[in-house]
Input
Amino acid sequence: MQITWKQVRWEELGFLLVLLFAPHAFSQDAATVQRAASAVTTLRGMMKDPESFVLESVTLQKPNKKGESNICYFFRAHNSYGGYGGTAEATLNSKGIVKVITAAAGRGGMLDAMEDPCKPKLRTADITAEVLASLKPAAPVAK
Output
């Protein structure tokens, strides 16, 4: 296979663009993870039994026109009877508002597909591992 100069130049240009914009992309991801992690504390505080809060998953939604992604949380916590219910959902919007999504009445705990802001087709990335890592306290430094 013969490579032309046009192909080489486009490949080099693409590589240079990745190098130029990669630091910005990584810092934006770090800021998004930090935003998602800070809302976990708020969400935990909204529970009847905050100590029972279990974070199952954190996902990003497709970005809006401003390039900001809403964040979806999937979690469990003790209910009023002291047992774990099913997985619940919550969202963090671009304005920093955390909203717990309740199941529609008469649906047996299932959200109607039209009402679910965290439906699978709107999710773009799973950032659960990054959020959980940022929530863990730093290990003490040995002296």
